[in-house]
Amino acid sequence: MADDLTRRVFLGSAGMALAATAATAAPESKDAKTGVTKIIAISCSPRKGKGTAESLQECLKGAKEVGDSIETELIDLGGLDIEGSVAAGVPLAKGRKDDFPAVAKKLSDPKVGGIIIGTPVYFSSMTSLCKAFIERLKVFFRKDVLTGKPVGELATGGSRNGGQEVTIRSVQDSLFCFDMVLVGTGKRFGAAVWAKGGAANDKEGMEAAKKLGRRVAETALALKT
After folding, report:
1. What is the enclosing helix (H) or strand (E) of 2?
2. Confidence at residue 143, expressed as pLDDT on a 0 to 100 scale
3. Which residues contact residue 203 at a Cβ distance below 8 angstroms, ignoring those fewer than 6 apart?
4. DSSP labels for 92-143?
5. I need a labelling partner for 190 at 20 to 30 A (CA). Which of 7, 12, 69, 158 fits?
């Protein structure tokens, strides 16, 4: 009885995101004819518009270089309310808003061919916002919305060797459960950026970010054919 109630609460709180977007998936054949492939970058820093978002913009520049059929969008989660416990069937506190359904609607767009997730390094791991976001992706877990889509990871740290790679791996471990195609920068797990003094000052990190974006876009096009 309790399990059934928990399941109903989850479907009511989080599952509605897919139900609400089911109708938007109808024009898929039209999108297929246009040949448009969209790459979405998601910044999981609680600080909106800072180093992680800046680095992801460089990823999207790299994605755009792949061809005119590539569209890009940055979703900055900074300042948004995304509660991970909803994925476990825990209802939101009365009066608290939930910004995840709007994000889920964008991810459900049939044009989306690839995703890039960026997070700052917090004690050698992803931010709580990033973890909550991934937990809320449970709404897609058995829907095959993300299955087979390429995903790249980027991490920003306060020092050159500030735990970026282990943070990238922690995100990859979670996304592997969604049967996504993990994409790196060639010989690295993902893009590691040194954000101290401004991410744009890290030339090596910006080059890695741009390369990651290109590889995600190239993989998305290759899987589409």
Report:
1. helix 2-10
2. 82
3. none
4. PPTT----HHHHHHHHT-TTEEEEEEEEE-SSSS--HHHHHHHHHGGGGTTT
5. 69
Give the least confident one: 27-31, 43-47, 189-193.
Answer: 27-31
pLDDT of residue 196: 86
Which residue type, as a one-letter code, is found at position 54? E
Task: Tell me the C-alpha distance between 209 and 53, whole Å.
Answer: 11
Contacts 24+ apart (CB under 8 A), 25-33: 25/108, 25/110, 27/110, 28/110, 31/110, 31/111, 32/110
Q: How far apart are CA 27 and CA 40, in angstroms?
A: 19
Residues 6+ apart with CB under 8 A from 120: 44, 45, 47, 51, 52, 127, 155, 156, 157, 195
Name the pTM for this structure. 0.85
Domain borders along the chain are 2-224
Q: Which CATH topology does 2-224 take?
A: Rossmann fold (3.40.50)
Query: How far is it, in rounded angstroms, from Cα 63 to Cα 71?
Result: 8
**What's the N-to-C CA distance of the chain in angstroms?**
46
Q: Which two structure tokens, joined as six digits, stand for 93?
A: 């506190």
Q: What are the pLDDT digits (tens) for 70-101?
A: 999 999 999 999 999 999 999 999 999 999 99
Q: What region, left, alpha or beta, does residue 156 occupy, with left being phi > 0 and alpha being psi -120 to 50 degrees?
A: beta
State the DSSP code for 150: E
Across the range 48-62, mean pLDDT stands at 97
